[in-house]
Design goal:
With 224 residues, chain A is an all-alpha fold. The first copy, chain A, is built from nine helices and no strands.
Chain lengths: 224, 224
């Protein structure tokens, strides 16, 4: 994780460039838009080709053909959700300078992303992390990779903040990344479970407190 | 939540006191011991009477009779898991004095409870909270009650710590309880997902830092 665009989703595979390809891409996207919403609520194992087909102009065997079966669909859903996450959280935060400003902007955009329910069931990755944490296989691995990429991205901007003198020299950036994701996840989970959005303000206050404890200028965290 | 025993599970309902009752209680306990382990891994919706019966000396209709169907089984599993949680976390922490010592002891016992996998899938309540957060009904309500009771219990001992001068007057005990549960849950989830128990030390360090930031004597937190 050394580039500035580590969380950009991979580009679609090459393939036919005719009308069939275009229609296939459109169908694929329609299936995935629905699948990630369903999975954010009930998990990836609860996805069925039949339930998706019933709500789309594509039948079960068409979906199976597009994704090569259920595991292929699950993997494509994780990738699609990554793209939506990048669009909602990572891209808008790129307007902030690398380091402390980026870190704080990521935190604010993450709370917005969870609060406005980009995914119906709150953060897609929270649901599938808990679902796949004790499983093996490619879907588990994709979920772990998404988790590590996000944590590493936060950690990277914490490091840049230390290098720029925006956070103190003694800052344990792994500890800080752990605490930030803990607070964000707790806000997402608490909002869903208790139906009370006050937890987002608690998470922002906690992260602000942690950053200030490491020497961050309060003025740099004012826009939260 | 005003008593010292708020998390004690409710006593079993009254019923026949003869041998049938004793056998029924024994069967009930055997089913629930297995059900909470399964549910901690795959959730309460994945429980089936058939799968439980296949591993126990009681058949499907026997289980249905004991619990009145699947929702009854799910509710009984939540109650049973509460009892195990009390035994693993709340009871041992009662050896510590109310206030800061109790609060810190609860945190340490919680990390032990998660780390030694009292439930095969880590904290039972983490799995079912994420599973039921967007559902309605009695099981959702039981899960929310368990969550609120635990948070309130932590909050209560934070309050007692403030009253005793062990934490500063300005301590926001709701915020503190939010941060403590956020760290504990993140450790549980991270340990399961990443297979690395270093997160428990991160959670303990984070909670210790939060308590010290509110004026806790570091010596009182030494045994962590």
């Amino acid at each position: 994780m050394t580039t500035e665009t580590p969380l950009t989703p991979t580009t679609p595979h090459d393939g036919p460039t005719d009308g069939r390809r275009v229609r296939g891409d459109r169908s694929r996207r329609a299936v995935l838009d629905l699948a990630v919403q369903d999975a954010s609520v009930r998990g990836l194992e609860a996805l069925t080709l039949g339930s998706l087909a019933a709500r789309l102009p594509v039948n079960k065997s068409g979906i199976a053909g597009l994704f090569g079966g259920k595991e292929g669909l699950q993997l494509a859903a994780v990738e699609h959700a990554r793209g939506m996450f990048v669009e909602a959280v990572v891209e808008p935060a790129r307007q902030a300078a690398p380091g402390l400003a980026r870190l704080w902007s990521l935190v604010r955009h993450w709370t917005d992303y969870s609060r406005r329910r980009v995914f119906a069931g709150g953060c897609f990755f929270r649901t599938v992390e808990v679902e796949f944490d004790t499983r093996d296989g490619d879907v588990h691995d994709a979920v772990v990779t998404a988790h590590r990429d996000w944590t590493s991205y936060l950690r990277r901007h914490a490091e840049l903040a230390v290098e720029a003198g925006e956070l103190g020299d003694g800052t344990d950036v792994d500890q800080l990344a752990f605490e930030i994701t803990a607070m964000l996840n707790a806000a997402n989970d608490g909002s869903l479970l208790l139906g009370d959005d006050a937890v987002y303000d608690r998470a922002l206050a906690a992260v602000r407190g942690a950053l200030e404890a490491h020497g961050a200028d309060p003025a740099a965290l004012a826009a939260g």
